[in-house]
Amino acid sequence: MPKNWSAENNVTEVAEDVFFVQGPAVNWTILKQGKEFTLIDTGYPGNWPLLQSSMNFLGLAMENAAGVLLTHGHSDHIGNAARISAMGIPVFASHAELPNIRREVLEQVTVKDLGSRILRPRVGAWAAHAIRSGGLSDVAVPGVAAMTQDILDGLPGSPRVVATGGHTSGHVSFFVPSAKAVVTGDALITGHAVSPVRGPQLLPAVFHHRPAETLASVEVLRQLGAETILPGHGPVVSVLDGTIELVSEGRYSPFV
User: Fold this and answer.
1) How far is CA 195 from CA 28, 107, 232, in A?
2) Is 54 in contact with 21 (CB distance < 8 Å)?
3) What is the pLDDT of residues 208-241, one digit of tens each?
4) How far apart are CA 190 and CA 247, in angstroms?
5) How many CA atoms within 13 Å lie on the side-chain side of 197?
């Protein structure tokens, strides 16, 4: 576990029984109901001790997970999903995202896509962390199943699925009505190792499968009227009057 990371300092209760966990590079969300819970995203493979620590901090045990929901199929979000699935816990994603999560296709930025940008300090540091955290390992989740709203209604937190494609074909976000919060995955982030700014923003276009659709998905998120953003990367952010204003569309050096 990273020396400076602790559950005490990185688990935030944003509303009753709704917990946001900020990892060193990627986040996950826990919707608690007694001893049962819904886990949204699972971090890199190397985040397994942190994931366990966040559970323990909340008095939870992984075997009591009612289900795991995945925003999309990138390694930093599904890194522990196969391990959890092997415990007999159901793992769900949108139907359109299943091929990416099963690794029948791969909609994910590669070193080749980054090109010479990998030599820039922020990008190189991010890539090195991703590799150390298991980002290049086999994270396919053969047992992932397609979610429906009926399935989600029966899980702790009863999150509402929101289609926010673009980052990947089947990327989704999850609106938690009781908290007026939205778990945005990578459709909208608030910080990232490659970014020089903090606040609601998009990743640079090279990180998205269909960049134009990602920008359109921000408008979908705006329509929710959420008051709290629980991003895939960066800190939790409160949104005044439910209005999301982007501080960046990801057009900064070396991504311009």
Assistant:
1) 20, 21, 14
2) yes
3) 999 999 999 999 999 999 999 999 999 999 998 7
4) 9
5) 15
pLDDT(135) > 90:
yes
Helix (H, G, I), strand (E, B) or coil at 238: strand
Tell me the C-alpha distance between 242 and 170, whole Å.
25
Residue 13, both tokens: 């209760």
Structure tokens of 33? 């109901």
Q: Provide the terminal-to-terminal Cα distance of the chain, rounded to the nearest Å.
A: 35
Per-residue pLDDT tens digits for 157-205: 999 999 999 999 999 999 999 999 999 999 999 999 999 999 999 999 9
Distance CA 119, CA 206 (A): 16
Which two tokens mark 90?
């159901």
CA–CA distance from 117 to each of 42, 178, 189, 251 (Å)?
27, 42, 21, 14
The C-alpha atoms of residue 68 and residue 85 are separated, in whole angstroms, by 9
Whether residue 94 contacts residue 44, with contact meaning beta carbons closer than 8 Å, is answered with: no
